Amino acid sequence: MDKKGNTKVFDTHVHLDVIDEHIPENELVLSVGYKDDVNKILPMIAGQKGIPFSVGIAPQVAMYEKFIENHSWIQNIMEIINNNKCAAIGEIGLDYKWAVTDDDKKRQLEWLTVQLKIAEAHNLPVIIHSRKAENELVDLLSSWKLDLVFHSFTGKVNTAQKIIDHGWKIGVTPLRSRDKKKVISLGIENLVVETDAPYIGKKFEDINESIERIREVTGLPTGDIIKVTFDNGIKLFKLEGRL
Ligand SMILES: [Zn+2]
Protein backbone atom coordinates (compact mmCIF):
# COMPACT_ATOMS: atom_id res chain seq x y z
CA MET A 1 0.00 0.00 0.00
CA ASP A 2 1.10 3.57 -0.57
CA LYS A 3 0.74 6.46 1.91
CA LYS A 4 -2.90 6.99 0.98
CA GLY A 5 -3.67 3.37 1.72
CA ASN A 6 -4.22 2.44 -1.92
CA THR A 7 -3.19 -0.99 -3.13
CA LYS A 8 -0.78 -0.75 -6.00
CA VAL A 9 1.12 -3.15 -8.21
CA PHE A 10 4.88 -2.61 -7.99
CA ASP A 11 6.52 -3.07 -11.39
CA THR A 12 10.16 -3.24 -10.25
CA HIS A 13 11.74 -2.94 -13.71
CA VAL A 14 10.73 -0.52 -16.48
CA HIS A 15 12.63 1.78 -18.82
CA LEU A 16 11.02 5.22 -18.77
CA ASP A 17 13.64 6.56 -21.18
CA VAL A 18 12.09 4.52 -23.99
CA ILE A 19 8.42 4.26 -23.02
CA ASP A 20 6.19 7.19 -23.67
CA GLU A 21 3.04 6.22 -21.85
CA HIS A 22 1.13 7.48 -18.82
CA ILE A 23 1.78 5.35 -15.73
CA PRO A 24 -1.55 3.89 -14.53
CA GLU A 25 -2.84 5.21 -11.18
CA ASN A 26 -2.67 1.79 -9.57
CA GLU A 27 0.97 1.17 -10.47
CA LEU A 28 4.28 2.00 -8.88
CA VAL A 29 7.25 1.59 -11.23
CA LEU A 30 11.00 1.63 -10.80
CA SER A 31 12.91 2.97 -13.79
CA VAL A 32 16.18 1.16 -14.36
CA GLY A 33 19.40 2.64 -15.75
CA TYR A 34 21.70 0.70 -18.08
CA LYS A 35 23.96 3.19 -19.85
CA ASP A 36 25.52 6.57 -19.14
CA ASP A 37 23.22 8.86 -21.13
CA VAL A 38 20.15 7.19 -19.59
CA ASN A 39 21.60 7.30 -16.06
CA LYS A 40 22.06 11.04 -16.46
CA ILE A 41 18.43 11.76 -17.37
CA LEU A 42 16.75 9.46 -14.83
CA PRO A 43 16.91 11.98 -11.95
CA MET A 44 14.82 14.30 -14.17
CA ILE A 45 12.41 11.94 -15.92
CA ALA A 46 11.86 9.77 -12.82
CA GLY A 47 13.37 11.14 -9.59
CA GLN A 48 11.90 14.63 -9.80
CA LYS A 49 8.46 13.07 -10.32
CA GLY A 50 8.83 10.89 -7.23
CA ILE A 51 9.41 7.75 -9.30
CA PRO A 52 12.12 5.46 -7.90
CA PHE A 53 15.06 4.80 -10.22
CA SER A 54 18.41 3.04 -10.36
CA VAL A 55 21.65 3.77 -12.19
CA GLY A 56 24.13 1.36 -13.71
CA ILE A 57 26.08 0.22 -16.73
CA ALA A 58 24.65 -3.03 -18.11
CA PRO A 59 27.07 -5.78 -19.22
CA GLN A 60 26.01 -5.66 -22.87
CA VAL A 61 26.95 -1.95 -22.85
CA ALA A 62 30.05 -2.31 -20.65
CA MET A 63 31.68 -4.95 -22.86
CA TYR A 64 32.31 -2.40 -25.64
CA GLU A 65 33.97 0.12 -23.32
CA LYS A 66 37.50 -0.14 -21.99
CA PHE A 67 37.40 0.02 -18.21
CA ILE A 68 39.58 2.55 -16.45
CA GLU A 69 39.57 3.74 -12.85
CA ASN A 70 37.67 7.01 -12.64
CA HIS A 71 35.90 6.52 -15.95
CA SER A 72 33.44 9.36 -16.54
CA TRP A 73 30.53 6.85 -16.51
CA ILE A 74 31.49 5.91 -12.93
CA GLN A 75 32.00 9.53 -11.92
CA ASN A 76 28.49 10.27 -13.21
CA ILE A 77 27.00 7.37 -11.23
CA MET A 78 28.72 8.66 -8.08
CA GLU A 79 27.43 12.17 -8.68
CA ILE A 80 23.86 10.93 -9.21
CA ILE A 81 23.77 8.75 -6.09
CA ASN A 82 25.34 11.52 -4.00
CA ASN A 83 22.78 14.11 -5.11
CA ASN A 84 19.59 12.10 -5.49
CA LYS A 85 17.50 9.48 -3.74
CA CYS A 86 18.66 6.63 -5.92
CA ALA A 87 16.92 3.31 -5.11
CA ALA A 88 19.52 0.86 -6.43
CA ILE A 89 22.54 0.15 -8.59
CA GLY A 90 21.55 -1.59 -11.80
CA GLU A 91 21.03 -3.13 -14.06
CA ILE A 92 24.49 -4.67 -13.88
CA GLY A 93 25.77 -8.21 -14.30
CA LEU A 94 27.08 -10.67 -16.86
CA ASP A 95 25.57 -11.38 -20.27
CA TYR A 96 27.16 -14.36 -22.02
CA LYS A 97 24.63 -14.26 -24.79
CA TRP A 98 26.43 -11.18 -26.11
CA ALA A 99 29.92 -11.69 -24.73
CA VAL A 100 31.82 -13.77 -27.26
CA THR A 101 35.52 -13.30 -26.58
CA ASP A 102 37.42 -13.58 -23.29
CA ASP A 103 38.02 -9.87 -23.62
CA ASP A 104 34.27 -9.17 -23.71
CA LYS A 105 33.82 -11.24 -20.54
CA LYS A 106 36.76 -9.57 -18.85
CA ARG A 107 35.35 -6.10 -19.48
CA GLN A 108 31.89 -7.13 -18.26
CA LEU A 109 33.46 -8.40 -15.05
CA GLU A 110 35.55 -5.26 -14.49
CA TRP A 111 32.52 -3.01 -14.86
CA LEU A 112 30.41 -5.29 -12.68
CA THR A 113 32.99 -5.38 -9.89
CA VAL A 114 33.44 -1.62 -9.62
CA GLN A 115 29.67 -1.12 -9.48
CA LEU A 116 29.23 -3.80 -6.81
CA LYS A 117 31.82 -1.91 -4.75
CA ILE A 118 29.78 1.28 -5.08
CA ALA A 119 26.58 -0.54 -4.06
CA GLU A 120 28.22 -2.11 -1.03
CA ALA A 121 29.85 1.15 0.07
CA HIS A 122 26.57 3.07 -0.24
CA ASN A 123 24.34 0.31 1.12
CA LEU A 124 22.31 0.23 -2.09
CA PRO A 125 20.50 -2.87 -3.36
CA VAL A 126 21.49 -4.24 -6.77
CA ILE A 127 19.46 -5.17 -9.86
CA ILE A 128 21.23 -8.07 -11.57
CA HIS A 129 21.03 -8.66 -15.31
CA SER A 130 22.11 -12.20 -16.12
CA ARG A 131 22.06 -14.21 -19.32
CA LYS A 132 23.64 -17.65 -19.52
CA ALA A 133 25.71 -16.70 -16.46
CA GLU A 134 23.40 -17.35 -13.51
CA ASN A 135 25.52 -19.92 -11.67
CA GLU A 136 28.71 -17.94 -12.12
CA LEU A 137 26.97 -14.83 -10.81
CA VAL A 138 25.56 -16.59 -7.75
CA ASP A 139 29.07 -17.78 -6.83
CA LEU A 140 30.60 -14.37 -7.46
CA LEU A 141 27.91 -12.44 -5.58
CA SER A 142 28.11 -14.74 -2.55
CA SER A 143 31.23 -12.93 -1.37
CA TRP A 144 29.49 -9.52 -1.28
CA LYS A 145 27.23 -8.10 1.40
CA LEU A 146 24.39 -7.02 -0.82
CA ASP A 147 20.62 -7.12 -1.17
CA LEU A 148 19.76 -7.91 -4.73
CA VAL A 149 17.29 -9.14 -7.30
CA PHE A 150 17.93 -11.37 -10.31
CA HIS A 151 15.83 -9.42 -12.78
CA SER A 152 13.91 -11.35 -15.46
CA PHE A 153 15.26 -14.62 -14.14
CA THR A 154 15.26 -17.40 -16.76
CA GLY A 155 17.58 -19.89 -15.05
CA LYS A 156 16.94 -23.32 -13.60
CA VAL A 157 15.15 -24.10 -10.35
CA ASN A 158 18.32 -25.30 -8.57
CA THR A 159 19.97 -21.94 -9.29
CA ALA A 160 16.84 -20.18 -8.07
CA GLN A 161 17.05 -22.17 -4.84
CA LYS A 162 20.61 -20.89 -4.27
CA ILE A 163 19.45 -17.33 -4.90
CA ILE A 164 16.70 -17.77 -2.34
CA ASP A 165 19.07 -19.36 0.18
CA HIS A 166 21.07 -16.11 0.07
CA GLY A 167 17.91 -14.15 0.80
CA TRP A 168 17.93 -12.55 -2.66
CA LYS A 169 14.86 -11.93 -4.80
CA ILE A 170 13.76 -13.16 -8.22
CA GLY A 171 12.03 -10.96 -10.81
CA VAL A 172 9.02 -12.46 -12.61
CA THR A 173 8.14 -11.14 -16.08
CA PRO A 174 5.09 -11.92 -18.26
CA LEU A 175 7.02 -14.67 -20.11
CA ARG A 176 5.90 -18.28 -19.64
CA SER A 177 8.22 -21.28 -19.28
CA ARG A 178 8.35 -24.66 -17.60
CA ASP A 179 11.42 -23.63 -15.56
CA LYS A 180 9.67 -20.47 -14.43
CA LYS A 181 6.74 -22.48 -13.04
CA LYS A 182 9.17 -24.45 -10.86
CA VAL A 183 10.90 -21.25 -9.73
CA ILE A 184 7.59 -19.62 -8.77
CA SER A 185 6.56 -22.72 -6.84
CA LEU A 186 9.53 -22.16 -4.48
CA GLY A 187 7.43 -19.47 -2.81
CA ILE A 188 5.92 -16.05 -3.38
CA GLU A 189 7.98 -14.57 -0.53
CA ASN A 190 11.00 -14.71 -2.88
CA LEU A 191 9.41 -12.87 -5.78
CA VAL A 192 8.99 -9.40 -7.17
CA VAL A 193 7.16 -8.65 -10.43
CA GLU A 194 8.31 -6.67 -13.46
CA THR A 195 7.55 -6.00 -17.12
CA ASP A 196 10.96 -4.75 -18.32
CA ALA A 197 8.69 -2.50 -20.42
CA PRO A 198 8.89 -1.87 -23.28
CA TYR A 199 11.18 -4.86 -23.92
CA ILE A 200 9.29 -7.86 -22.45
CA GLY A 201 5.96 -6.37 -21.44
CA LYS A 202 5.13 -3.79 -24.10
CA LYS A 203 2.92 -1.62 -21.90
CA PHE A 204 2.77 -0.86 -18.16
CA GLU A 205 -0.48 -2.79 -17.78
CA ASP A 206 1.31 -5.98 -18.87
CA ILE A 207 2.43 -6.21 -15.22
CA ASN A 208 -0.93 -7.97 -14.77
CA GLU A 209 0.49 -10.79 -16.90
CA SER A 210 3.41 -11.18 -14.46
CA ILE A 211 0.92 -11.37 -11.59
CA GLU A 212 -1.05 -13.92 -13.60
CA ARG A 213 2.06 -16.14 -14.05
CA ILE A 214 2.25 -16.38 -10.24
CA ARG A 215 -1.47 -16.99 -9.87
CA GLU A 216 -1.37 -19.84 -12.40
CA VAL A 217 1.21 -21.68 -10.30
CA THR A 218 0.21 -20.80 -6.74
CA GLY A 219 -3.56 -20.46 -7.08
CA LEU A 220 -3.40 -17.55 -4.63
CA PRO A 221 -5.91 -14.70 -4.97
CA THR A 222 -4.63 -11.95 -7.30
CA GLY A 223 -4.97 -9.35 -4.54
CA ASP A 224 -2.68 -11.33 -2.24
CA ILE A 225 -0.04 -11.69 -4.97
CA ILE A 226 -0.16 -7.95 -5.66
CA LYS A 227 0.25 -7.16 -1.97
CA VAL A 228 3.06 -9.61 -1.21
CA THR A 229 5.12 -8.72 -4.29
CA PHE A 230 4.59 -5.00 -3.58
CA ASP A 231 5.83 -5.40 -0.02
CA ASN A 232 8.80 -7.51 -1.21
CA GLY A 233 9.80 -4.75 -3.63
CA ILE A 234 9.39 -1.96 -1.07
CA LYS A 235 11.57 -3.83 1.38
CA LEU A 236 14.23 -4.70 -1.20
CA PHE A 237 14.56 -1.11 -2.45
CA LYS A 238 14.11 0.42 1.03
CA LEU A 239 11.20 2.57 -0.16
CA GLU A 240 9.21 2.40 3.08
CA GLY A 241 7.97 5.90 3.93
CA ARG A 242 9.42 7.37 0.73
CA LEU A 243 6.39 7.11 -1.56
ZN1 LIG B 1 15.87 -3.89 -18.30
Q: Care to give the gist of this entry?
A:
The chain is an alpha/beta fold and 243 residues long. The protein is 40% helix and 15% strand.
Question: Can you walk through the features of this model?
Answer:
The protein is α/β, with parallel strands linked by helices and 243 residues long. The protein is built from nine helices and eight strands. The protein has helices at 36-45, 59-62, 72-83, 102-121, 134-141, 157-165, 178-184, 207-218, 222-236; strands at 9-14, 27-31, 54-55, 88-95, 126-131, 148-150, 169-172, 191-193. The strands form two sheets. It has a six-stranded parallel sheet with strand order 3-4-5-6-7-8. A two-stranded parallel sheet has the order 1-2. Strand 6, helix 6 (157-165) and strand 7 (169-172) form a beta-alpha-beta unit. The longest helix is centred in the middle third of the chain and has 20 residues, at 102-121. The chain is globular. The site of zinc ion has 5 residues, from loops.
Detail the topology: elements first, then pairings.
Blueprint: E1 9-14, E2 27-31, H1 36-45, E3 54-55, H2 59-62, H3 72-83, E4 88-95, H4 102-121, E5 126-131, H5 134-141, E6 148-150, H6 157-165, E7 169-172, H7 178-184, E8 191-193, H8 207-218, H9 222-236
Parallel strand pairs: 1-2, 3-4, 4-5, 5-6, 6-7, 7-8
Helix pairs in contact: 1-3
The structure holds zinc ion.
Residues 13, 15, 32, 91, 196 line the site of zinc ion (ZN).
